[in-house]
Design a protein that fits this description.
The protein is mainly beta. About 5% of the residues lie in helices and about 45% in strands. Strand 24 and strand 25 form a beta hairpin. The N terminus is likely disordered. Keywords: Signal.
């Protein structure tokens, strides 16, 4: 029998709240019920006052996972929760079902502050799924711990463990079986990227490559190159404020890096994380360059133009977007493709003008003020709780008003 998770999770939440006021269920080790009562019965296994947890980076953002082996009805259930009376550590509750009876097999004290990921995947191609549980052990978001469990009748059996900073579960070797790509910390505190397979109940390292030893790892993105190859994008801080992006792929039996690490996109003067900018699955690498007129300016005074590029396996790349971003005022302005490398910036007291590098023609103007101070004949571009963004330009410009965005729009 299949269950609608959108209906199931609220029921379980309700069960946890009711338990707070009514005490524990009569018997939290076994419950016999009709199939349609599974939701309430599973919720009854949660300790009083429990708080359900959602893994931050799981493919499915939920707190309860049901598993049906070989296409049958659900036979296993996993509940991710926190018990406030138990040092608020994260728990993994594992239930199995025989006929109409749910039984609690294990309630694992993970030691995690929270869950980073949870997946039910057949890792070795034997037709049975493994439970992949990743958790955070520090507030930094790094130093996570991964445990792989085999699902057995008498409980969960640990079948592999790994400390990691970032993790992806995909078929990187093109053998139709998932692999694990992870960034891990070495003994000397530097980082490495490793590709692992799961065979015979254990994790096996296929290939490993060091990240730049001078870098301080900050962020990872997983996706594809422009020509379809799956890749890991690792963004690391260098020196006082620079950032290096390293693109790592599995190719010809080993992990290798894509592109020239000294190019102006992979190595940038300030942090700019890699991400899928347009939702097509291809990860864009962020870079920046100094616009015309700022060649001799101090680094802190340069209004950098941001450029986002798609890389291919051979190291070549193409520009996907250029924009001007004002991190202080939290907005950005995207450029039409025909203006790439053709825009410079003029700062005003409370505004910015974007000018053409060919003749200084006005391409876009934005000013900001309190809502009460906006001129009556101004064109409003956007507004926040405290600030209005507007233009006083009366003529049509090559960069349209629709190119102006508040940064919060990109986060939604």
């Amino acid at each position: 029998m299949k269950y609608n998770m959108k209906k199931l999770i609220p029921l379980l939440l309700t069960g946890a709240i009711l338990l707070t006021g009514c005490g524990k269920a009569e018997n939290q080790n076994t419950t016999k019920n009709q199939p349609q009562d599974d939701a309430a019965s599973i919720g009854g296994f949660l300790p009083s006052g429990s708080e359900l947890l959602v893994p931050q980076k799981a493919g499915k953002k939920q707190s309860i996972y049901l598993n049906a082996q070989a296409g049958g009805e659900n036979k296993e259930a996993f509940l991710l929760y926190r018990n406030p009376s138990d040092n608020r550590q994260a728990h993994l509750l594992y239930l199995t079902k025989e006929k109409d009876t749910w039984q609690k097999k294990e309630d694992i004290e993970t030691g995690f502050l929270g869950f980073d990921t949870f997946e039910l995947i057949d890792l070795d191609g034997d037709g049975a799924k493994e439970a992949i549980v990743g958790g955070t052990v520090s507030e930094s978001g790094h130093d996570n711990q991964l445990t792989i469990y085999k699902l057995e009748k008498d409980g969960l059996k640990k079948a592999g463990e790994l400390s990691y900073d970032a993790l992806s579960i995909e078929d990187y070797t093109d053998d139709k079986i998932p692999d694990l790509m992870a960034i891990t910390k070495k003994q000397d505190e530097t980082r490495a990227a490793g590709l692992y397979s799961y065979k015979a109940g254990a994790l096996t390292l296929i290939s490993q490559i060091d990240l730049d030893p001078q870098g301080m790892f900050e962020h990872a993105a997983f996706g594809t190159l422009a020509d379809g190859k799956k890749a890991l994008y690792a963004d690391s801080g260098l020196g006082a404020h620079s950032m290096l992006t390293e693109i790592i792929v599995y190719n010809n039996g080993t992990l290798s890096k894509v592109g020239d690490p000294s190019d102006s996109v992979l190595l940038k003067p300030y942090p700019l994380y890699s991400r899928d900018l347009n939702g097509d699955g291809i990860i864009e690498v962020g870079g920046m360059y100094s616009p015309k007129g700022y060649e001799d300016a101090a680094m802190a005074e340069i209004p950098f133009i941001y450029t986002y590029q798609d890389y291919k396996l051979d190291g070549s790349f193409q520009v996907v977007e250029e924009r001007y971003a004002d991190n202080g005022q939290h907005f950005y302005i995207s450029f039409p493709r025909e203006l790439y490398e053709g825009v410079t910036v003029k700062r005003l007291d409370d505004g910015v003008e974007l000018l053409s590098t060919q003749g200084d023609a006005l391409l876009f103007q934005v000013k900001w003020a309190s809502k009460e101070a906006v001129p009556a004949d101004a064109v409003l571009l956007a507004s926040t709780k405290d600030t209005a963004f507007y233009t006083e330009s009366k003529s049509e410009t090559k960069i349209p008003a629709s190119a102006f965005h508040l940064m919060e729009e990109e986060l939604n």
